Amino acid sequence: MKQKIILSSLLIVLVPQLSEAISMGSISDALSGQLAGSRAQPTLTAPIPKQTPETRPAPLQLAKQTAPSSTTTTEPSFPNLALFVEDAAMTAYIQSQLLLKKDIPHITVSTENAVVSLIGTVNNKEQADTIKKIASSVKGVKQVKTDQLVIRKN
């Protein structure tokens, strides 16, 4: 039950932003614009408990400093949900446009960070050019990779 409430709340919040994003052509731009214009919510903090000699932490001991290592550790980064949704929308739109073309064989389309990759086999160069033209005409697409698009030899 809690999951349904959370999901409905999430949809209520995202639907206006997504509809605005579709009209703007970029989901990530719409969400960042929406978030930038929103008012900051106050944050609640827990009171800090008083320290007694029994609960006081031990004093920190300084560690011997060493030269910084050549390898740096980075914290794991989580994907931006808006970019993920935008990539999925681009992929779905390109696939739907390819389905409307009767002379185009099935091609696998994947999008990551607005870079579209086309994978598959076509019968001739005209089909390959048509597929590339459809993919590159989508608003927001930065690049179309066709290195895995193979043209059959007759």
Tag the structure with descriptive keywords.
alpha+beta, 43% helix, 3-stranded mixed beta sheet, 154 residues, elongated
Structure description:
With 154 residues, the protein is an alpha+beta fold. It is built from four helices and three strands; from the N terminus they run αααββαβ. It has a three-stranded mixed β-sheet. Helix 4 (125-136) links the parallel strand 2 and strand 3. The N and C termini lie far apart (59 Å).
What is the SS-derived class? alpha+beta
Mean pLDDT metric? 74
What is the element string, with H for helices and E for strands?
Answer: HHHEEHE
* Whole-angstrom Rg: 25 Å
Strand content: 5-15%
Shape label: elongated
Instruction: Please give the count of helices.
Output: 4
Topology of this protein?
Layout: H1 2-24, H2 27-37, H3 81-100, E1 108-112, E2 115-122, H4 125-136, E3 143-151
Parallel strand pairs: 2-3
Antiparallel strand pairs: 1-2
Helix pairs in contact: 1-2
Summarize the structure.
With 154 residues, the protein is an alpha+beta fold. The protein contains four helices and three strands.
